Amino acid sequence: MTIRIVLADDALLLREGIARLLGEAGFDVVAQAGDATSLLSAVREHHPDVAITDIRMPPTHTDEGLRAAESIREEHGEAVGVLVLSQYVDTTFALRLVADGSGGMGYLLKDRVDDLEDFADAVRRIARGGSVIDPEVVAQLVGRRRARVPLDDLTEREREVLALIAEGRSNQAICDRLFLAPKTVEAHIANIFSKLELLPAPDDHRRVLAVLAHLRG
């Protein structure tokens, strides 16, 4: 089935450009909005599979898009996935977005839109109830120093696998990205969860939340 999208950004040219790219990738952009209020109205009217919004929207250009995303989740639950786009890395906003533990949420830098295949894959994963976190956010969280740093116990390869887990990648996607066999990836993940003292999670979304919970300390 075609994934239906409501798209919000106050920059008309950027919004039209993203809408065109989404259309080329096979998505159906059913409505566009230039502010958070219009976004909420469009979601109520069209009941899309995913709402995509800029994080900074009129009138104050601070966190209107993020607050609209939270309102969509409160009103529609996991029936509507939400992807927030940002010009800059903000780990606080990213973690706030996934803090409630529900699926179908994502935070990406706008630069990711340039890679249409990767961007389209992220939207599809959110539509399926997965979580997507930008690699730059993950890198900042992984690089943060804490009093106790079990991350130091990870090998370089385990760090690479951990970063891809936190982005919301499936085991198969990790295999494809790192050119590893499925059994090897499973072994790395088991080692990571053991070293970080995390309980194994039954699906991609839950393990993303587990990893993020650990990284934010």
Strand order of the largest sheet: 2-1-3-4-5-6
Taking Cα atoms only, what radius of gyration do you get, to the nearest Å? 17 Å
Content of β-strand: 5-15%
What is the terminal-to-terminal distance? 39 Å
What order do the SSEs take from the amino end to the carboxyl end, as H and E? Answer: EHEHEHEHEHEHHHHH
Count of individual beta strands: 6
Count of DSSP H/I helices: 10
Shape: globular
Provide the helix percentage: 40-55%
Helix/strand-derived category reads: alpha/beta
**Major sheet description:** 6 strands, parallel
Q: What's the mean pLDDT score?
A: 87
Question: Low-confidence parts, pLDDT < 50 over ≥5 residues?
Answer: none
Describe, in plain words, how this protein is organized in 3D.
- The chain is globular and about 45 Å long.
- Strand 4, helix 4 and strand 5 form a beta-alpha-beta unit.
- Helix 7 crosses helix 10.
- The model has no long low-confidence stretch (mean pLDDT 87).
- With 217 residues, the protein is an alpha/beta fold.
Fill in the keyword field for this structure.
14% strand, alpha/beta, 217 residues, 10 helices, six-stranded parallel beta sheet
Task: Give me the secondary-structure topology.
Blueprint: E1 4-8, H1 12-24, E2 28-33, H2 36-46, E3 50-54, H3 64-76, E4 81-86, H4 91-98, E5 105-109, H5 116-127, E6 131-133, H6 135-143, H7 156-167, H8 171-178, H9 182-195, H10 204-216
Parallel strand pairs: 1-2, 1-3, 3-4, 4-5, 5-6
